[in-house]
Each structure stands twice: as C-alpha cells, then as structure tokens.
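Hi Y.,

Following your request, here is the sequence exactly as I used it, all 445 residues.
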Amino acid sequence: MGFALGKLGNPPLSKASFSSRPVNLPLKQPAASENTSLCALLELHCPSVLSPFRPVWWLFNGHLQTLYAALGDFSVVDPVAYDRRLLQTKDGGTLGLDFTPPASDRVLPDETPIIVVLHGLSGGSHESYVRAILAPAVMPTHQGGLGYRAVVVNSRGCAGVPLTSPQLYSSCHTDDFRQAVLYISHRYPRAPLLGLGFSLGANVLTRYVAEEGEECRLVSACALACPWNLVTNSAALHGRLLNRNIYAKGMGRNLRRLVSRHVDSIMKFPDSRLAQSLPELFSRKSLTLAQFDNLITVHAGGTSPLFPFKDVHHYYTYAASHQVLGDVRIPFLAINSDDDPMVKHVPMYETDNEWVILVVTRGGGHMGWFGTTGNVTRRWMTQPALEWFRATVEKIDVPRRAVRNIRVVDGWLVESGREHLGCRDNGEGGRIEGRMIQKGMLAGL
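Below is the corresponding structure, written out as tokens. Let me know if you'd prefer a different format.
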C-alpha cells in the first residue's frame, strides 16, 4: 500500500491520507473533457478540509471540546425545522424521516441534491451538530447557502419516533438506512443523494456504503468522528477512569433513558429478548456503554442472521467499520480529531482505496471542532462538509451506477433481490422544530 501523507499548516496541525492509485473522474462543464482526482478536487474545491483547525482559546483540548458539545446551550443556534414522515419497515419497525426545508417554507425542484443524515448514538435531527451543517446546507443560494434538501433518518425510538417493534439500532445494522435511502430515491428519482454520518451514524454510513459497493445509491459520503475499530476504542474508552465515568457511563445512561421512554411499547412483545432484559437493565444503578451493549444491543440491535451476537466483543469485532473501507466505491471523506476521547484508532494507513480520503485534525474532540469565525464560535467541520458535498455533486461526474430496480409489491417498496426487506410511507409525523431539547439526555454523543 502507498499513501501521500500531508502534514499541513505551520506548525503542522492536520494530516490527510490519499491512495497511491488516484481515481480519475470527469469534470462537469465547461471542462467536461478534463479529468481530476479526488485529491486534486479536495485541494481545489475543498480548501477548508486541508486548512488547519484552530480551536477557540478556551476549548484547548479534546475533553473541553467534547463536553462543550454535550453541555453547551445551542437552542438558538442554527435553527432548522422539518417535516416528518413515518416510514414503516416490513419487520414492524418505524423510522422518522425529517425533511428540511419544510414544504410550507419553501418548495424545491425535485432534482435538488439531498443530504441524507445519520445521527449519533442516541440523538436525532434536533442535535446541534446536525443543525450546524444542515442550516447552511438548505439555506437558499442567494443567502449564501447550498440550496439543497436534507433528510435526517431518525433511528427506531430516537427523537420522538415511536418504538413499534422489539428491535433497536446498532453500529452495524444498515438495513434501516438502506430502506430510508430506497424510499428517498423512489420519491426523488432525479435527485443526487449525499450521505452524512456522525459518530455511530458515521460507522453505519461507512458500512452501508461498503456493503453496497458498485450499487450504492449515494453520489458521495462524509463521515465525521467515526469510531472505526470498536474493539480498540471501547478498550480505551472503558479502560481510563475519566473516560469511563464521564463518557462511557454518560452514553450508557442515555441509552437506558431512551429505552425507559418506550417501556409500554416494549412490553407489547413480552417474549422478546428486549422485554426480558428490562428488569436487569433498570436494576442497575449505572452502566457503561459496553455493559448496555452486552445486555441489550447484542440481542436487539438488528435482525437475524447477524443478531444475536454471542457477546459485546463479538458484536464490536463484527461492527468495526475500518475493516470494510476497501469496499467503498464512491467519493468518501472521513474526518476525525487526534484528541477525541472516544476514538483512539483511526485507520490512516490501513487501506489504499482510491475512493477514500481520511483527514485527522490536531484538536477538536468528539463532535466538537469549535473554532472562531470573526468573533463568533462556530464548528469548523461545517465548511469542509459543505465544500465536499458541493464539489462532489456540482464539479465532477461520479459514474452512474447500475442500482437495483425498485418495485411496489403488496404495498411495500422493495428492491429486486431484496424482497425480504421493504418499507412504506406510514403518514405524516408533523412539523418538527430542530431546537427541541431531549430532557435527561447528554447531547452531542
């Protein structure tokens, strides 16, 4: 394997890895006869990706960046409103698809590019890190935005989505996202789709893109703060006193509270492993992320045959996304920080895939990246993501893929060869104000 490793800034503050075998992609008009590589595209059209991240002076390490992301008040920052559609899956589950801008606010052409978003561990469309990118992404071009559409895929039970089956979500269950992309692609067949994932959602996005390979319906993807090697990172997260007591227990507490909101629904399935695990879950005074996953996720985090896993180690080993990067076949940008207290392993030198660019910033924490623009504290990650999406959808022609045919069978939207999967529109879920606060939940994780 070969890499072009760039240490950028003076002193060097970021590093990026590119393949030694750059893929050449045709540029759109007026230079349609010319080709470019992803590396050249990044340098020319995504300058902020390769510019150093400079943290605001009072958030000078990863813990401060991460805790500010979790505890700061962002209720009046980057307001985003959504129209919710409830999507039912064949196994009885429900997803909440939040579309922005709402139809009552602005009507967009059907061919408008769509950013399809996967949130973090127990989050949703309300999270400040989601709104930090979507607010300018859907803003009209005459106001300085991209003028795109966006859809946040809220996982089962998250962000006010009802839990209608005894199954939750996990780092490796990609079928829910697959059904959401299928629905969006069917509803807007002329719109290019762009994938955006945060933290756990970045892991799911990476695995989805890799599993789809040449048949991927997305034009490009951006993964932010992906946890990658879940075995290594879980050991670091749970093996250090500060990380275990603040982050691992904080995420475990979030997940237990999420489950507690759906107890009545879960008890409609008394024979399920999820229902049978509730007494032990609520008997514990506190539990870490790994303890929750070992008790709940390994059994209820997805469908058979993958689930159930023997234990949390087998689940983390399978779910790790760094091992599937070689199968990605669309432009794929991943950004991590080198002081993320939850992610200690980033696969910078472990793949030579010409479709993948990995960037590690000096500083930024987990889903933080708070810097200063003028006198305003803003997330640095916003501009790189927006530049990447605009470059990959407006500047180059990503090869058209031979994707699976979509059909309606007995009222279910299905793909050829995947008839065991399927989804259908279950109606409106109302207008969602993105600034809502999930009480009792530690945000930003």
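The chain has one domain: 3-235+304-433.

Thanks again,
Q.
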